[in-house]
Amino acid sequence: xxxxxxxxxxSPSEGLSFARFAWFVLALNLAVIVWGGFVRASGxxxxxxxxxxxxxxxxxxxxxxxxxLIELGHRLTSGLALIAVVALGVRALRRYSKKSLxxxxxxxxxxxxxxxxxxxxxxxxxxxxLEYVGQxxxxxxxxxxxxxxxxxxxxIAILALLAERSSSGATDEKLPVNGVPVGATxxxxxxxxxxxxxxALLFTAVTGAIAALGDTLFPATSLAEGFAQDLSPTAxxxxxxxxxxxxxxxxxxxxxxxxxxxxxxxxPAGARAGFWARWTIAFVLAxxxxxxxxxxxxxxxxxxxxxxxxxxxxxIAGVLLVDSTRRGSPAGFAPAS
Length: 337
What we know:
Blueprint: H1 12-41, H2 66-95, H3 101-129, H4 139-168, E1 176-177, E2 180-181, H5 190-217, H6 223-231, H7 237-240, H8 244-266, H9 272-296, H10 301-325
Antiparallel strand pairs: 1-2
Helix pairs in contact: 1-2, 1-4, 1-10, 2-3, 3-4, 4-5, 4-10, 5-8, 5-10, 8-9, 9-10
């Protein structure tokens, strides 16, 4: 199969520079996401009051509380992430032309990255302006948080695709193995298997965010008390929904391990798809362990943040795993670099 790289004619150093910048922007956004989790877990979301983009009605707060510094720090790093994503998008639009299908695909990813980073800013501003922060335990906050999380996951998926494809090159052809499309299982078309897997993972993330919010607003002093809260018919809905997360997470994790194992078995030795299959399995198993430890330790902030980062890594690995099976040489079934 002839390889078709999605990179416009340019020096190798320019391509390497773009790829490194793309990975940096992805890492920066992951750091901002984890810091946002700390804002929620520490109850600092209302640190700047119901003001945005100002903090307590001013540009630079005077004698700020620790909650104000935490929230303000998140806003500043979020602004830096927005600038970085826009810069990445502009570089991609300048680097990739409209000459080929592959380059047009990269340009679409660039536009989507810009769109979703502004969506992040708007959703974050909405949380503050609508006062869905601090000790707010309303259903509206849970729904808004779910929307924010889905937007975040889509953003990091787009950034991961930009980084990976710019690093390895791509083609839009789907490569069959022994006549069987990669990803097909139990008669289920690959597109539906992928859709089911990603839907399960998104649902896991949403239930995880709700569980984390419940842990923050209604902390338990022991496992026994926590289980009693979960099963109480008079408990707050955030507590009652908390029990969903481990059940959904187990199902989604098993599904992703199954999918990754099938892709790994189909991929030639040293293939990129096999590389991401191994990391997907490793991240899922690590998440199981971190989740159990978080539960046993009554969800301390540090474990919540580690669990949040793990969820992002599972998502990224899964996105790049599935993407590698939809593309041929050199990224999908060529040796991993």
